[in-house]
Write a structure and sequence with these properties.
The protein is an all-alpha fold and 246 residues long. It has one domain. It is 78% helix and 0% strand. It is built from ten helices and no strands. Helix 2 packs antiparallel against helix 3. The two termini are 24 Å apart.
């Protein structure tokens, strides 16, 4: 399965860089489809997210599309929440995780559909740092237990509620994944439920895809970018629904 995981890693890395997500929304259902149980798939996804989010955020910062500002407060909250979420998985049944995943995707799609078009250079709203911290903690403690970095919720919130331009929301979302995924990884290492070998294969391979994905993101219009994000979320939702009901 080594070559197969490398190919998957490159594809997920490209998705991560382009859409500003950890990649778990596609990786987890995909790994489940090819034979991994969901808890093992979540562990592999967390390792992959560490690789893709750190490298992707570095590239976004170099290109000027990542504003560290509020992202640090949300990120620290995400770190705390991710550490909590790393423990949650072992106490929740696999079927419950699958249904939670579906609910998460439906919420994200709703917020994206409602978000209005904002120019890339438009000013963004801000919140008190304590509010940002708790938003990050709440999102991460929930999503990291599903093997998802949290940007799947944060990006729609930034675009749909705080009116971030979609590309800035995507970059901020990927930066958030750095904190939540590292914390989730630590929690998983302590709890002992982690497939490190397969996770490293997917994670290292994803670095190639991240570079390609960020390059593509910078060469597509914001409108088309949003439509493609909605398409990605819909695909992930259909994959998990197929697993649950078919």
């Amino acid at each position: 399965m080594g070559i197969e995981l490398v190919v998957i890693g490159i594809i997920i890395g490209a998705i991560s860089g382009f859409f500003g997500v950890g990649g778990g929304m596609i990786l987890v259902p995909l790994l489940v489809t090819i034979g991994f149980d969901i808890k093992t798939a979540i562990g592999i996804s967390i390792i992959q997210m560490v690789f893709s989010s750190i490298y992707g955020s570095y590239l976004n910062f170099k290109k000027g599309s990542l504003n560290l500002g509020d992202g640090l407060f949300v990120g620290v909250g995400g770190f705390v929440g991710g550490f909590i979420g790393g423990y949650i998985t072992q106490y929740v049944t696999s079927s419950s995780l699958e249904y939670l995943f579906v609910g998460l995707m439906l919420f994200a799609l709703y917020k994206l559909f409602k978000s209005t078009k904002i120019a890339d250079d438009a000013p963004t709203k801000s919140l008190h740092w304590l509010v940002l911290f708790f938003v990050g903690m709440a999102i991460s403690s929930f999503t990291i237990s599903l093997g998802v970095g949290g940007s799947i919720l944060l990006t729609p919130i930034l675009a749909g509620i705080l009116h971030y331009p979609i590309k800035k929301a995507v970059s901020a979302g990927l930066f958030f994944v750095v904190f939540s995924s590292v914390a989730g990884l630590i929690g998983r290492l302590i709890s002992g439920h982690l497939d490190i070998t397969n996770g490293l294969q997917v994670g290292v391979a994803s670095l190639i895809g991240v570079f390609v994905g960020i390059w593509l993101k910078d060469h597509v219009t914001s409108h088309n970018h949003k439509l493609l994000i909605i398409g990605l979320y819909t695909l992930s939702l259909l994959l998990m629904v197929k697993k649950i009901w078919l």
